[in-house]
Amino acid sequence: MSQKNILLIGASSGIGHDLAIKLLDQNHTVFCASRRLEKMRNLEVLGAKIFSVDVTDEEQVNRLVENMIEQVGHIDIVYANAGFAIAGPVEETSIEKVHSQFDTNVYGAARIARAVLPYMREKEQGRIIFTTSIAGRVSTSMNAWYSASKHALNGMVKALAQEVQGFGIHVSTIEPGCVQTEFDSIQLADMKTTTELEAYDSIVKKSHHFLQNAYNSGSTPESTVNNMLKAGFDNKPKLSYQTTLDSKLMFWVQKLIGEQTFGRLILKIIQRNPA
Ligand SMILES: NC(=O)c1ccc[n+]([C@@H]2O[C@H](COP(=O)([O-])OP(=O)(O)OC[C@H]3O[C@@H](n4cnc5c(N)ncnc54)[C@H](OP(=O)(O)O)[C@@H]3O)[C@@H](O)[C@H]2O)c1
């Protein structure tokens, strides 16, 4: 496998951190970014260049990309992996909070794409791999805005794929289900704090149980990392990769029975949980 110049944003924990270790192990040149520099020190020891970057800050993203170009000349593969989840009833979620969800998960990914595309177009090659989620196709109770952000990102990527194909650039989405990382603790904690209305008490508690159980039996990052490597290195990369057993199952069941029946089925399963 030839050595590639790779930019990985969202490298300080979970899926991105494990991916970085694999890429470094394969001797690629890996530029890693996220807000918490101290959580990437071990990657630096393994050979990564590490940068503290917040994807909600366009200047920081642009500077990171310029810096990488100055140092290594071109970028072969970009993993836009940064993301987090808010949770709670739509009625109780402020629009300000929705903005912050989109600012990272959607606009953050767009900032990264906009920063690297001029260099990839010039080189007439490159791959951008966005970590979306099966939540970009399927919505479950209390996950409305996280799902909305990943649906938006999925939608953007499908159009981008057509826009840049003629420049030799390929884009893919990575769509995990539940993966055991730092992700669920942020999401589940937020679900509990976002609700005050008694009317939602029962459905919030049941949804919380449902999701907690799903994460407890969730996948390790391994299958998702392997699919990210496929998207980066396969001769014929796919547009989308469902990377875990539960995401493959949800993808196919929703396709077969339709969104409305799928929604009813999910709600039935959620309702079986304790309130
Ligand atoms: N775990 C799951 O079940 C699951 C399922 C489907 C999709 N995903 C997606 O997978 C991706 C990785 O998540 P994970 O599960 O590995 O969770 P994680 O352990 O919480 O990692 C999230 C990564 O994103 C970075 N990040 C978050 N906000 C950022 C910002 N504003 N600027 C720069 N970096 C930021 C974090 O770094 P800092 O905090 O240091 O900035 C961290 O490196 C996310 O896009 C998530 O939506 C996860």
From TrEMBL:
One of its GO terms (molecular function) is oxidoreductase activity. InterPro entries: NAD(P)-bd_dom_sf, Sc_DH/Rdtase_CS, SDR_fam, SDR_oxidoreductase. This is SDR family oxidoreductase. Keywords: Oxidoreductase. CDD domains: 17beta-HSD-like_SDR_c. PROSITE patterns: ADH_SHORT. SUPFAM superfamilies: NAD(P)-binding Rossmann-fold domains. The lineage of its organism: Bacteria, Pseudomonadati, Pseudomonadota, Gammaproteobacteria, Vibrionales. It comes from the Bacteria. It holds the Pfam family adh_short. PANTHER family: SHORT CHAIN DEHYDROGENASE, SHORT-CHAIN DEHYDROGENASE_REDUCTASE FAMILY PROTEIN. Belongs to the short-chain dehydrogenases/reductases (SDR) family.
